[in-house]
Amino acid sequence: MTDSLKCDVAVIGAGTAGLAAERAARENGASTLLIDPHFAGTLCATTGCMPSKLLIAAAEEAHRIERADIFGIKVGDVEIDGPAVMHRVRSERDRFARLTREGFDKIPDGIMIESRARFLGPNRLALADGREIEAKTIVIATGGEATLPPAYARLGSRVLTHESIFEIEDLPRRLGVVGSGPIGLELAQAFARLGVEVSLFDRADTLAKVRCPRVHRALLEAVESELNVHLGCDVEPELCEEGVTLRWSTNGEANDSGEEHFDIVLAAMGRPPALDGLDIDKAGLDCDEHGVPCHDRATMRCGDSAIFLAGDVAADLPLLHEASHDGAIAGRNAAAFPAPIKTDRYVSLAITFTHPALATIGSSEDDGAITGTVDFSDQGRARVEARNRGVLTLYAAAPDGRLIGADLFAPAGEHLAHLLTWAISSGITASEMLERPFYHPTVEEGLKSALRTICAATPIPLPDDQDKGAPPGS
């Protein structure tokens, strides 16, 4: 007879979303089981946010030293020790991963099950060890997996993904990066700043799906100053004596083509939801054209079923803070099933840690009746620090100029992005934001010209008790 386990809420996957879902369900009175084949730690700690930022930190330090002569500071020959760079990346990465795994010790005994799970029905799971689980509700939080098309898989050890790139012992001489999303863009620039010859390829005509043409022009100009960029092109990989040959061709107006040789290739072509092996068809769910179960973002519930999604597997916004929020929403609703508890979602915020930082916030220009733009090329504080490049565009709704979104590639971009996201979340108008103090000289002062442009296009005047001028260098 097959061993059978029972619980109120079964959670498949112990990443950021799964951990949040299990915790929320348990804190809301449900009995839980958390199923994962490895319990290795979260994507962020092991192969995502933290190792990539460690590499970027090394790249930023090298770049800062290289540019010291702008300030009249002469630095001798700088040597980048590739093995030492990668050793620190792995050492600190392993520390973050260990601390994440130590969090598993806080989960009560009997909840964690180290195994793979697949659906037998809407409320039943089969484990790889032969046991079965009967649950009132199930949360799928299996995350995403790096995609590797067959042509790239044939490259063997010469092709890497974000799951393996940090294991290299030394920096390559030449690196081809295929895919200009956040992962590809961040790592391409970082490796280039560490002295690697880098070329970046993408089928799309825009880097990182940037919405604003003005912001994209600033981003493209900055990236092209550090590495080769080929957009709107198809790429064919092939092994060669030197490593890998990438042949590329464009079908646009340029109608260009060529080939380049690399030691290794980083395939950064996305992370589709990890649904293989779940036998999702036996769960009786309606799925979209990509095979992802249809769900309500306010509850994370799949249709009228007792199944919920959380995190990257939902293919909504593959970001840690969204995964954590997904998990809390899904776990709470799974425990409260069948009574739905709808949650207002965050204003969307995505940051790509290029230099300067790139960010997309809230609604786009298509949704805004009013826009205001600031160019940081002559902004005071940015110029003082010799990081005066980039553009920020604000979007506001008519008639009152309420802020609804922004796109930016700007100095202090990650901090400006948080400031604007919080302002949008609070429903602040451009004129209300101008009533707040802006310290001088700061990068934040750069917002004032964009805010004033929005105010000038609305019937709401600038605050009468505010100076209409600007201090030097603002």
Mind explaining what this structure looks like?
The chain is an alpha/beta fold and 474 residues long. Helices cover 28% and strands 24% of the residues. It contains 12 helices and 20 strands. The chain has helices spanning 16-27, 43-46, 49-66, 82-102, 150-153, 182-193, 213-224, 320-336, 380-384, 413-425, 430-434, 447-456, and strands spanning 4-12, 32-36, 112-114, 117-121, 124-127, 132-140, 159-160, 174-178, 197-202, 228-231, 233-240, 243-250, 257-262, 264-267, 307-309, 349-352, 357-362, 370-375, 391-397, 402-410. Strands 1, 2, 3, 4, 5, 6 and 15 form a 7-stranded mixed beta sheet that branches. Strands 7-14-8-9-10 form a 5-stranded parallel beta sheet, covered by helices on one side. Strand 11 and strand 12 form a beta hairpin. The protein starts with a strand and ends in an 18-residue tail after the last helix.
Shape: globular
Task: Evaluate the radius of gyration.
Answer: 25 Å
Q: State the helix count.
A: 12
How much helix, percentage-wise, in residues?
25-40%
What is the straight-line distance between the termini? 75 Å
What is the mean predicted local confidence, pLDDT? 94
Largest sheet composition: 7 strands, mixed
Instruction: Report low-confidence residues grouped into runs of 5 or more.
Output: none
Structural class: alpha/beta
Strand content: 15-25%
Oligomer: single chain
Total beta-strand segments: 20
Topology:
Elements: E1 4-12, H1 16-27, E2 32-36, H2 43-46, H3 49-66, H4 82-102, E3 112-114, E4 117-121, E5 124-127, E6 132-140, H5 150-153, E7 159-160, E8 174-178, H6 182-193, E9 197-202, H7 213-224, E10 228-231, E11 233-240, E12 243-250, E13 257-262, E14 264-267, E15 307-309, H8 320-336, E16 349-352, E17 357-362, E18 370-375, H9 380-384, E19 391-397, E20 402-410, H10 413-425, H11 430-434, H12 447-456
Parallel strand pairs: 1-2, 1-6, 2-3, 6-15, 7-14, 8-9, 8-14, 9-10
Antiparallel strand pairs: 4-5, 5-6, 11-12, 12-13, 16-17, 17-20, 18-19, 19-20
Helix pairs in contact: 1-8, 3-4, 3-6
